[in-house]
Amino acid sequence: MSTFSQYWLRQGLLGGPSDVHNVPYADGGKAWIASGGQSAGAHSWSRPDDETVINLGPLLNAPDTLAQIDRLVGSQVSRTSALMAQSRFYWQLPYYSQDPARHGAWDMLLRLYFEFRIGSEWYCSDASGEISYFIVPYLDSAGHLGAYVDGWSHNYSGGGPFCTGGINDALNSSVPKGIGLLHGLLGSELALLADASFSSVYLLPGNGNRSHADTSENADIDAAIAAIP
Domains in the chain: how many in total? Predict the structure, then answer.
């Protein structure tokens, strides 16, 4: 029996708290659309029984992964949150305007990110913000699932009036070093599916649960990769 998943997003496209309705239906049957109540956007998928789902939250926040991230960003940068995952359309990415033809504007990518803080000298304010990496999941010519890091960004507030130049230098030096780590992390996880071939891959807001019940999730902090044969 397939599942029709509906995500009613309260704050906008692919972001914020969401009401999730999973409706089972038989092949060739019908699934009813639930009322979204107060919502700013909606997202839905028809999900067959043989779907494979990778919930990224537990994978990203394994203790050894967090320790590697902390070593990578260096002593100047303190991670102040868990690692979070979010689905984003390409046009929503900060570097979209630099290369708008790289992907389709409505192609969905994964944003993996965490919050940070940098202490400054006494004559400057501390800086706090987010470090983000953007991931493209794909199927190769044999239908094997893969993923690569498409880009990165950082944004912050603080550091004034004199320290923003040094903060930018520190972030521009340390953030790209996380690309190799994420390539390895995604590669090791997807290697578990090396013998499987798929026909389609897509992203789901939240943890990708299929339970036939109404639940609430936060699409800002978790996302799942799903694939079907």
Answer: 1
The 3-state DSSP class for residue 123 equals coil
Question: What is the reported pTM?
Answer: 0.90
Domain with 94, as residue range(s), is 55-193
Tokens 């996380």 map to which residue? 178
Does the residue 216 lie in any domain? no
222 belongs to a structural domain:
no
| DSSP letter (8 states) at residue 92 | G
Task: Write down how long the chain is.
Answer: 229
Please indicate, yes or no, if residue 16 is contained in any of the structural domains.
no
d(CA 150, CA 157): 25
> If DSSP codes are grouped into helix, strand and coil, which group holds residue 98?
helix
pLDDT per residue as tens digits for the range 114-134: 999 998 888 999 999 999 999
State the Cα–Cα distance between residues 7 and 85, nearest whole angstrom: 16
Q: Are the C-beta atoms of 84 and 114 separated by less than 8 Å?
A: yes
The token pair at 4 is 């029709």
Write the pLDDT tens digit of every residue in 17-58: 888 888 888 776 555 666 556 666 787 888 888 999 998 888
Q: Where are the alpha helices (DSSP H) in the chain?
A: 56-60, 63-73, 164-174, 178-190
* 185 in any annotated domain: yes
Q: Which helix (H) or strand (E) holds 186?
A: helix 178-190
